[in-house]
């Protein structure tokens, strides 16, 4: 019982954590108020404006409370290699970057900033001859946090990357947008099912992202 209590204690926020959490939440609330006051946003559901903050807050909390310890240089090297590979797969599957589609007559547009709602933007976009980027802040922070937690997990498991692999395959936040795109292509962009799959992607991905972070945050305590 004491072991279980010790493990759950890692999820209990300290006074310092609560203080900084209040500061962050107030800053985010002010950002949203400022956005509504200065933009012409009048449509869309509120939850889509809140999802980026959920990703960012959960990611920052987990990273702040995780202190990976390497037993050897070899473990550190393996951990870094697995984490980098994990982030690259997440980034590619989640749409942060990828190869530019080879479409005749489509010129490269270079870099530009998209001033999207807070958390979604400001987004860094790039379209070149070979590479495309779509760096949304909440996705970048979220995927970096997952990679960091995988790094901590590998170190804790002394070279075993099994939890990182499980986290990758359980990360619907990466695979669901791909599934939604496939459904749209098969069922037709105008079908109700395709619209439901696309609109529901961030509902599901946010839930699974939080669950995945919790699992990867919890996993390093289990030997």
From TrEMBL:
Native species: Haladaptatus litoreus
Alphabetized InterPro entries for the sequence: DUF7546
State one Pfam family annotation: DUF7546
- Alphabetical keyword list: Membrane, Transmembrane, Transmembrane helix
Give TM segment ranges: 17-37, 49-66, 78-99, 140-158, 165-187, 193-218
Q: What is this protein called?
A: Uncharacterized protein
């Amino acid at each position: 019982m004491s072991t279980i209590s010790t493990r759950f204690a890692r999820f209990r926020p300290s006074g310092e954590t609560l203080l900084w959490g209040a500061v962050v939440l107030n800053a985010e609330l002010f950002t949203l108020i400022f956005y509504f006051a200065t933009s012409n946003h009048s449509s869309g559901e509120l939850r889509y404006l809140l999802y980026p903050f959920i990703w960012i807050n959960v990611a920052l909390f987990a990273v702040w409370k995780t202190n990976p310890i390497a037993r050897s240089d070899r473990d550190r090297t393996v951990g870094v290699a697995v984490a980098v590979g994990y982030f690259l797969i997440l980034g590619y599957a989640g749409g942060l970057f990828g190869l530019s589609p080879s479409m005749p007559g489509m010129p490269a547009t270079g870099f530009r900033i998209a001033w999207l709602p807070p958390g979604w933007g400001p987004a860094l976009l790039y379209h070149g001859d070979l590479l495309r980027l779509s760096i949304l802040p909440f996705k970048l922070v979220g995927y970096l946090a997952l990679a960091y937690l995988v790094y901590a997990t590998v170190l804790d498991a002394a070279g075993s990357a099994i939890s990182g692999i499980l986290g990758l395959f359980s990360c619907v936040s990466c695979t669901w947008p791909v599934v939604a795109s496939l459904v749209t292509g098969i069922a037709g962009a105008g079908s109700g099912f395709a619209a439901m799959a696309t609109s529901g992607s961030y509902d599901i991905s946010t839930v699974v992202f939080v669950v995945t972070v919790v699992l990867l945050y919890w996993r390093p305590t289990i030997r």
